[in-house]
Specification:
Chain lengths: 455, 455, 455
């Protein structure tokens, strides 16, 4: 029964500062969907967890897509006619549109202008823009600066290469007692943006480290991949494996101080959807759950109709819902160690719930068993209310007919999963309950295949 | 794919004035459930659409009913003892209770009184009353006049005949690409009452004229029938045909300026119910939907348990819900050309939706197809929101697993059917989607019977 | 068709005063889960209804439990050092913890204190406490008195016996036209407590008396049992019989002036659940329904997963929800004859509904039958609303396709069951409707097994 105990003590993460340090180390690197930036980032994460690094050659067909050429950049700037570097990649890697072609030219402001991107509503922030699948180039800059550009001859220089190479992603598989697995996926392709998604990468890495240190029922798979093309490439290369994915979460935007946001899987009522909603509901803090929609991060691919995996997305403030999103203001100041810790905590609670969520059989299904003679019920009768522990035991007994999991019971009883799971454990210890032994759920019973007496 | 295009351009009806003229021409005629009034009315409608006229002889058994004798009336009045015609059918055909037996007698006020009907709460309006299935006679008059009648000897005269003849109804069948049909039914038996139901007759006639001018997938059947006995007679004579009715609407009260009211079919969630609700929801205007109840117009018969057809009722202010209902105040002043036009518009939108509402198959169900390389996705990445058209395409792709129609998708996406249908059309044109070829839905595929790859 | 008529005239109970007299007679008796108190109480109830008395010997195993030894008590007191009886069982049988072992000892206050129970929040009330399954003893007293006890030597005396004997319960079975039965169960084990549960016992007895005087479709079983162990013993001894239980109610707390509270069965939407909710909803008075939970009275056992019977609980203010609950303040002053009468009334209405709740077949399912020619429809047409009786008939006709019971129809029509049942009776009398003859529902048809024509 070791797996029914919490995986980590009180599920209180205390590595917020460590996660912050990891993020600070990753922050300056210019990542993109391919190239040395993501390669270097995965190497750093590999210092925390034993990540397998995969390289998929440019040109490899992956479903309807083709792995693009690899992009690398060394230098980029705009000089005015006096030779002042008015925009310089060395100051912020957001200054260059990701996947910009190499260019070296002198242009008038009018010629340059279509290649410049800014945010009029946030004139002090540099936007993040990409042109992955279109051969062009561009610079991003503060709107305040853009407005002050005078008619001049500008020299633009981007020392980038777009050439055959490979797409890089990191993968960690933690085998469990069963081949059924839970997938955690985070995009690792954004440049100097902290909440989106260095926070997701850091939380995933530390979650993996914790899970790697304890036994667990499910197998766990962590993917650190470039957005869209990365999940498409992984799914294409692992098509035979996806049927083992029983639960999954895309992790993103986990470091800001906003309330948690859970985006349900396409199925809408998968076990992962119910588990996350339950944990958030009993967290005592504000949260929101939103329906699946086919826009967002890699849940788009996991939940495409040909896969329809039970994969939701776990975030704090969701993508596009905070002003700093995809701007230079999504920096180290936007994220907090406490927020990262609390995100990790919630994920551990979700994992704990799923690990322990099984169906049990009441071994005395006809009337209540006499809890009192086993010391499980208060001695004195006549009190107006049942105690919380007694009530949790009564709920578990009443609904453990083999058709209800502990989460089903917690939902109907409107009691936390933790209380219901503790009651089940007590009842198992007193041989009043046993795990239902179907679906390879590792029952501790010697009679495989037996059915509840009242079925 | 011609049928997936809108049937009428922008579904903007502009024949309100024509409908008003038709109503004005029909208004003076004394219609009843049989007789020359309805016969003459159907002839006038025949000037607009090629109506087939059916005559069902008196005495014909139709289910539990019998076609009644034919009623015709030429003259009717009440004279006081000075010979003044104080009530005269020539002033308003509502003055005579419909189906009144012939009478010529002199009566005291006390003897006359039980034959007089008025509306105390609306003393200036003449009520509309009928005695179809009971042999009696009566007059309707303004309550103000009734109260002033003094004790006198009155001469009453009704020159009517109730004799073997026939029940008359009009029918128009517009064959489509499939034998599946949509039924529009309106009652054509009310005398000088405009909203109920000259408005329904006019809108039905002009809807039929528009549908007759374009190709369409479904067949369309229009019935202009006397209420209750007409739909019973039609169902009795067409019992073998009703299984082709896939959608249907009873049309009534479509000329007043009130909000639309949709009364669901007995089934409650038939495609017609969902289609009308969707169109009204996305109309941007107030509306209400109400549950089926077995009281109202001919939906009572179409939705009787032995038929249980998917037939709802489309109205503006529903019967019994406006004070002028079934009174002389339901006159030409109560209805508006703009209201008639808007009613016709909504019906065209409903027809368009149903014509285009099919299930499709995403031909790249595993992960998203790369829309960008087909020019279907914006070139620049990193923006916080998906464009509306891109999001509609993503929804169609995500849910086109063969189990969702476009209406299912529009409902889940909370996007207008028009946007979803346009996205589907674009995706079909790029061979990313094809119509599911089951149920004789005329798929444009050469492989009949194939299933979605992910089924 | 006699059984379709109301079982009792207008379901107006007028025996509130009789019930009060019965409760007053039972009030002084010291009942417990075994012993002469409950035996004597059942004898008194036997004056009203012919109760069968069952004795189950101590030591009998009943599922996970064992019938306990029989407890009887004759005398109990606490004397101070001056020999004053400061607590005396003769003043209130609540003074002794039920099932207290015999004791005779002199104790200091410190030694006595752990054996004393009071209610600090209600200092003038004596609490009710039990120690059925633990060998100990105790006294209950007013908190005000407890606080004034001075340091003294006290003599405690309990002249009780706990010895092999038997558990006693009363049962009445009223055979009906079918072996399907409805169970009414009330706990009869509480000492001088009026609302909980002399009220339930009295209402059950008078309900049984009324049902015994009229013919009925269902069989009715009444149980007057000690709580928990009584229902467990009955279920253990009648396991083969429970499959006949089609509906059931646990009766408790039916004499106070609070609103009715219905606690649903574990199934949540059993016919009994819907029936009670409907009756309460149409009662015009405040009420509440609550979900099943595995805490409360004997519904815990009837709804254990091995039985899962359709048994709800009918109360006024529920156990634990009024301050006088399980205290000496639950006395004759807490209950009212009118409240008892109204409780009985509601139960008779529930019984009437269940007796009459069957599915019927519209014999003219295609279109409406012509009600007018049968005198069932008003003669004059054109009025804006259907009359209530006509509308009820139309609903019954529309939904009597063999798949809807009268309760289904009443719920959908949002009309009282009584109105729907009356309409069904009228339609049966006119041969427009007949009872569906499946499931041994005693159809009055000569063609067993026929199906609705439109199936």
């Amino acid at each position: 029964m070791s797996t029914s105990a919490p995986i980590v003590g009180a599920a209180q993460a205390t590595c917020g500062e460590e996660m912050m340090r990891l993020i600070a180390e990753l922050y300056p690197i210019c990542r993109s969907i391919t190239g040395n930036g993501i390669r270097e980032s995965l190497r750093i994460i590999g210092n925390i967890i034993p990540l397998d690094i995969h390289e998929v050659p440019s040109g490899t067909p992956v479903f309807d897509w083709t792995v693009p050429r690899e992009w690398n950049i060394r230098e980029a700037w705009i000089k005015d006619s006096q030779g002042n570097r008015i925009v310089d990649f060395r100051n912020s890697n957001l200054h260059v549109v990701s996947y910009s072609l190499p260019v070296h030219a002198k242009l008038s402001l009018a010629e340059l202008r279509p290649h410049l991107f800014s945010l009029p509503e946030y004139p002090d922030w540099i936007p993040y823009r990409t042109c992955y699948y279109r051969e062009t180039w561009g610079f991003c800059l503060r709107h305040r600066q853009l407005e002050q550009l005078r008619d001049d001859e500008y020299e633009v220089y981007i020392d980038s290469t777009l050439a055959d190479g490979s797409l890089t992603y990191g993968e960690l598989f933690l085998p469990g007692e069963t081949p059924s697995e839970m997938l955690f996926s985070c995009h690792a392709c954004h440049p100097s943006l902290c909440n989106d998604n260095l926070s997701g990468m850091a939380v995933a890495a530390f979650l993996a480290r914790q899970l790697g240190a304890v036994p667990h029922r499910f197998s766990y798979r962590f993917l650190f991949i470039p957005g869209t093309i990365g999940s498409i490439a992984w799914l294409s290369r692992n098509e035979a494996r996806v049927s083992s994915i029983r639960h999954g979460l895309v992790l993103s935007c986990l470091g800001d101080s906003g309330a948690f946001t859970y985006k349900r899987s396409r199925r809408g009522n998968a076990e992962i959807d119910r588990a996350v909603a339950h944990i958030l509901q009993h967290s005592g803090k504000p949260y929101q759950t939103v329906d699946f929609s086919p826009y967002g991060y890699d849940e788009r691919q996991y939940c495409s109709p040909g896969f329809d995996l039970p994969v939701g997305r776990f975030s704090r403030t969701a993508n596009g819902c905070y002003p700093e999103y995809h701007t230079s203001a999504d920096d180290l100041g936007l994220i907090r160690p406490g927020a990262l810790d609390a995100s990790l905590d919630q994920l551990l609670s979700i994992v704990n719930l799923l690990e322990r969520n099984r169906a049990y059989l009441n071994l005395n299904p006809k009337c209540e068993p006499q809890l009192g003679k086993r010391g499980l019920y208060r001695a004195m009768g006549g009190l107006p209310d049942a105690g919380a522990q007694e009530l949790a035991m009564l709920w578990v007994l009443n609904l453990s007919d083999g058709r209800h999991t502990l989460l089903d019971i917690a939902e109907r009883a409107q009691v936390s999963f933790a209380a219901i799971a503790a009651a089940a454990e007590t009842l198992c210890a007193h041989e009043l309950l046993r795990e239902r032994d179907e679906n390879n759920n590792m029952a501790d019973s010697a009679q495989p295949g037996t059915r509840p007496p009242n079925d």
